[in-house]
Amino acid sequence: MAAERTGGETTGAAAGESAAGAGTAGGPAVPEGTAPEPAIPELVIISGMSGAGRSTAAKCLEDLGWFVVDNLPPALIPTMVELGARSQGNVARIAVVVDVRGRRFFDNLRESLADLDAKQVTRRIVFLESSDEALVRRFESVRRPHPLQGDGRIVDGIEAERDLLRELRGDADLVIDTSSLNVHELRAKMDAQFAGDEEPELRATVMSFGYKYGLPVDADLVVDCRFLPNPHWVPELRPFTGLNEEVSGYVFNQPGAKEFLDRYTELLELIATGYRREGKRYVTVAVGCTGGKHRSVAMSEKLGARLAAEGMETVVVHRDMGRE
Fold it and tell me: Where is this region: Disordered (predicted)?
């Protein structure tokens, strides 16, 4: 029977046919009230020789936005993936570090991998290895025993670990030999594999502070605003902070203030490029004045806004404001 339309609405039997067939063009229709299937997170398993750089590789993925779990018993990996699937997309990529520290559980890895394959989980195994000579040097430099060394020598532990991991290495999707790599070079290799075409993101914290309360211990860069006249000595401005428009206007009407902001922003852009190249993901810029109330606050606000406008994820913190 032909469909009858009244004011754009379909009536008659054709309407029922249309409703019944809805969604056939793009696949089976999802019954009304039925929740969609949860998205299964992408999974990377990081393993390899102790001392070969597993922690560095894991930290690199964490900086790229992966949810990282260190030393998770292999039997719990499918459970971790299931929990990620229930997160409604908040945990879309999971990295798990698996190593011989949990030797009692390591035998469960093969069973867990089979379980993941049965559930069609997209997984990759990254295996980090290094020469015996390089591993011995690294363990001796930190004066720590190999986890499988027991009462023997470091080389005995290395040999035992190689035997234990031999099959896993053969199954690895990516093998990285770190014998001659430094930390930055290893991070670059991980970025090349997992960062895609996106440039590594740099996150900046711009922190105002007062010199009379001491330098921030976590500052990467420190800049001094005490070359500018202090609003503290202007009676009508003294009660306010650098967040106040009158105080900020006073600071940036001083000779050299705007020029300083322009040039220091340019310098930070240059430094940020180098930080990204070296694999650094976080930078704290400390901006100081005498009390951390007026000049440094106003300058930090403007500097943070400039960096954010350049596409850098930026947080502005005023450490000492309100302490006086």
Answer: 1-36
Residue ranges for the known binding site for GTP are 99-102
Which stretches of the chain are assigned E, i.e. beta strand? 4-6, 9-11, 42-48, 67-70, 93-97, 123-129, 174-177, 203-210, 221-224, 282-289, 313-318
Residues 210 and 303 in one domain: yes
What residues are designated binding site? 48-55, 99-102
- Residue 105 clears pLDDT 70, i.e. is over it: no
Q: Is residue 14 part of a domain?
A: no
Q: Which of 26-40, 146-160, 183-197, 227-241 shows the lowest mean pLDDT across its residues?
A: 26-40
Domain that holds residue 47: 42-194
Structurally, how many domains does the chain consist of? 2
Numbered residues of the known binding site for ATP: 48-55
Least confident of 83-92, 131-140, 240-249: 83-92
Reported pTM: 0.57
Query: Which pair of tokens denotes residue 43?
Result: 């999974």
Please name which of 142, 126, 124 lies closest in space to residue 51, comparing C-alpha atoms: 142
Contacts of 133 (CB under 8 A, 6+ apart): 179
Round to the nearest angstrom and report the end-to-end CA distance of the chain.
83
Within a domain: 58: yes
